């Protein structure tokens, strides 16, 4: 069996930025491999929207994600960097999630410091757990590993708090043993530069067209020292637009093509789910 974990670690220690387009099903996974990319990002938002017709607001379960992850691992035959949201609960749940993702064949697992239920990192209204509590989640994940699975710690503090808090949390998560750290949704080029300059750890950057983070070229991310760039919507948004166009050409009504995360989530009922959450809050 291919050592995908070893391959990913070798890539991350290589000289160039590792680029991992998003995949959410078998065909997108095959396409990433055939396009020649060295790794694939298993996107939670893509699984929620494409697999279940749901917005990325914590509605998909760990079991549903693991089933889809196994498909992407087999179809891509690449190192898979797998989104695991909050670990689907507390430290105990995160430990079980790590073991399930390992069995499914993930090369890396990404955990974040949002409260459950989480929200897409490029939506408003996110809530955080305490940094110490998340460090406990990271330690549980480390102890649960039965392999050299790469552990990515993501902080969403930039949204509900500020960039200073996000950088401080990322520094703490790196010190706690995360292999890579990920500051979600910096809102200016200056903030991106601060993340690169002030965090002494291997860094992940999330490329989200239409999201809260400004556009920046891959060569600039490489120059700043980011090790991994993920592109969750690289296959999802174009395929959604293509389906909408095909239905229009077939004689159907014109459907607005999503240009970013919020548009995509509105397409699959974000407004109705938000109303439901508010009704029972």
Protein model, in words:
The chain is of the alpha/beta class. Helices cover 47% and strands 13% of the residues. The chain has helices at 4-12, 26-34, 44-52, 62-76, 91-104, 131-144, 163-175, 189-198, 218-224, 236-249, 261-267, 270-279, and strands at residues 18-23, 40-42, 80-83, 108-112, 150-155, 180-183, 203-206, 228-231. The chain has an eight-stranded parallel β-barrel with strand order 1-2-3-4-5-6-7-8, surrounded by seven helices. Helix 5 links the parallel strand 3 (80-83) and strand 4. The longest helix has 15 residues, at 62-76. The mean pLDDT is 95.
What is the residue-mean pLDDT, rounded to a whole number? 95
Strand elements, count: 8
Which strand order spans the largest sheet, edge to edge or round the barrel?
1-2-3-4-5-6-7-8
Rg, nearest Å: 18 Å
Sum up the overall morphology in one term: globular
Q: Note the beta-strand portion.
A: 5-15%
Could you say which structural class the secondary elements and strand pairing correspond to? alpha/beta
Distance between the termini: 47 Å
Main β-sheet description: 8 strands, parallel, barrel
- The stretches of 5 or more residues where confidence is low (pLDDT under 50) are none
Q: Please, how many helices?
A: 12
Q: From N to C, what is the helix and strand string?
A: HEHEHHEHEHEHEHEHEHHH
Helix content: 40-55%
